[in-house]
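Bit of a strange request maybe. I'm writing a small parser for structure token strings and I need a real example to test against, not something I typed by hand. Could someone generate the tokens for this chain?
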Amino acid sequence: MRDLLLRWFAANGRDLPWRRTRDPYAILVSEVMLQQTQVARVVPRYLEWLERWPTVAALAAASTADVLRDWQGLGYNRRALNLQRAAREVAANGWPDDLTRLPGVGPYTAAAVGCFAFERAELPVDVNVRRVRERTGSEFDHTCAQALMDLGATVCLARVPRCGECPLTAVCPSRGRRFEPERKQGRFEGSFRQRRARALRSILDGCDPADAAAVAALAADGLVQVEGGVVSPPA
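Reply from user aminoacidic:
Good idea to test on real output. This should exercise your parser:
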């Protein structure tokens, strides 16, 4: 299975900008942006981000308000806050051996940066990798990481996989099956997440948000500061 998968990937792998670098900072940026955000939306924002803040030191020195402004539209603003906190930690102390020590970096992101930047024998298991492994019954290893991600994203789809296009179809025990839809995230429109996003945007624009509950939630996450009744971006 491994050989079939890698041959397919050599001919069909996606050309993504973060695959052209071993810079751990650039790879961390891509992994944080890709959390719950589609690849097509991430690519232009990733390139813009690295043009503005090309290094760990540049992001560490940036205004947090500017970082949050630049993140607008990607969602889950706490990711931007943690990304800058991680950059400041690295700028001060270097990259730790245990990458989960960095703010906002969990086991998956640590494995991805470890594998793609530091060439560690770690397989980052996202939803696509997990799906392919479960359906094929094969473990694969870290050398197959990008190939597994692409196969899961473009062929071995969640509900109706494209078995006729799959390089593993002849040896896959799940070929021809259909699957129940995976649990979807709640709608953004009308949600409290949307209220938080609107409130943060107002604060970053220098306006006074009217949504006290959203402001309180933002303050609890460190995305805004409230002093003397005045709400402002974090220092």
